[in-house]
Amino acid sequence: MSINWYPGHMHKARKEINQTLHHIDVLIEVVDARLPYSSQNPIIAKLRHNKPTIIVFNKCDLADDEMTRRWQKYYEEHEHIKTLTCQQKQPQKTKHILTLCQKLAPEKSTHLKAINAMIVGIPNVGKSTIINILAGKPIAKVGNEPAVTKRQQKINLEHNIILHDTPGILWPRVDNPHSGYRLAISGAIKNTAIEYEDVGFYAAEYLLQHYSQQLKNRYQLQATPCSALDFLDQMGSKRGAKQAGGKVNLHKACEILLHEYRSATIGAITLESPEMITEELKTVAIEMAEKQKRKENRKKHR
Ligand SMILES: Nc1nc2c(ncn2[C@@H]2O[C@H](COP(=O)(O)OP(=O)(O)O)[C@@H](O)[C@H]2O)c(=O)[nH]1
Ligand SMILES: [Mg+2]
What we know:
Elements: H1 7-21, E1 26-32, H2 44-47, E2 53-58, H3 65-76, E3 81-85, H4 91-94, H5 96-104, H6 106-110, E4 115-120, H7 127-135, E5 154-157, E6 161-164, H8 177-186, H9 196-210, H10 212-219, H11 228-238, H12 250-262, H13 274-300
Parallel strand pairs: 1-2, 1-4, 2-3, 4-6
Antiparallel strand pairs: 5-6
Helix pairs in contact: 8-9, 9-10, 9-11, 9-12, 11-12
Guanosine-5'-diphosphate (GDP) binds next to α7.
């Protein structure tokens, strides 16, 4: 899975974040709790330096609680990072972001000075939903955002906190192909930009390996399917996803699987663990080094 993003937008967003960060006391980075690594923007970690940061695990209603705890522990090992779990249906919990901001900027809060916070995150992680909860009224548009740079907004909140919205639109992880698949499974990438079967098979393989009991329960399977194809065949057949001649329509089966994953009908399921990411990044580093070598070789032989 590769994701296209415009270099012009990327450059502009990086520049604007860097500029705004000078005036920011606390950074609020929103991630999707189902994919707490892949739904991060890769430059934030590089730009924030020692800025106190709250990583908000949003949509935790859709994620596996045990995995969310492991991810929180993983991020909290970094100095300057605190984490918080959030979901749209528990607005009171989301409001903890404000008290945490006060704790992370103690010198401002004891002197009754305004605390400047900036909320960042890739599209669809729930920034607008969180902004509306914190503001106590619907001021940000929730749902699909057009891929255009919007003007930066400043919002005055309780406790003398000024919230700055993400400048521009941030792109997700594109270095690791697994991240592309997970973003596609979660619904973070437009359906028109993904290959349903490719993504569906990836999802089926992962779910079979890590959440086979949930699959068996949801689709009433007696035994664990022996492969992703076996699973999609059985599931598609049960759900009437057939094509002419009676064979299972795999595209339709994949569509059902992705749809039911996204609505958490299969269960609250997380798509990655810190251990998986550590392993994958080793492979990515090797591949990048090989690519660089090939590039240098080509130059030499020209
Ligand atoms: N299940 C679930 N959906 C959420 C949650 N927060 C936001 N959403 C949904 O995710 C989608 C994107 O939310 P939005 O706030 O527009 O994200 P933004 O692009 O980061 O501003 C919307 O359909 C929201 O209703 C949550 O905690 N749980
Ligand atoms: Mg938004």
